[in-house]
């Protein structure tokens, strides 16, 4: 079993801050593909951005996610901010393309997935996250259903401080 742990859930729920904490503790982390794409596309003159061409953006997110899996070390925990399942789920939702089942079954992560619940008090938009809280909620609801369909155990992260959330994840993984 690969030690690749997904942190997913509602946008603006604290995933990036949590990954920063895990990195400070010496764990390997993989930044969200979408945020990397949103930074790179304008530099390259591309249009694979969620507010311009969402399908192209999601296809690129799948490609980046697959590359992330290929280069991730297989020793020790590696924490992914979103990844392949999120991108495939979104592409299937937006276009109707049946990609989730095949990609989700072929490329497996650790069987426990940690989801950040909606947390309106900390939600915010920025240059890389332009969608509304309602859109983030819809995405969260879709992911909450998607992961169990693919055989993952979903663990909702409590709304507590970053250090305590990191402790919660590590303690949960130790017990599994």
Automatic annotation (TrEMBL):
Highest rank taxon of the organism: Bacteria
SUPFAM superfamilies: P-loop containing nucleoside triphosphate hydrolases
Residue ranges of every copy of the NadR/Ttd14 AAA domain listed in the record: 5-165
Transmembrane segments: none
InterPro entries xref list: NadR/Ttd14_AAA_dom, P-loop_NTPase
Name of this chain's protein: AAA family ATPase
Annotated organism of origin: Terriglobus albidus
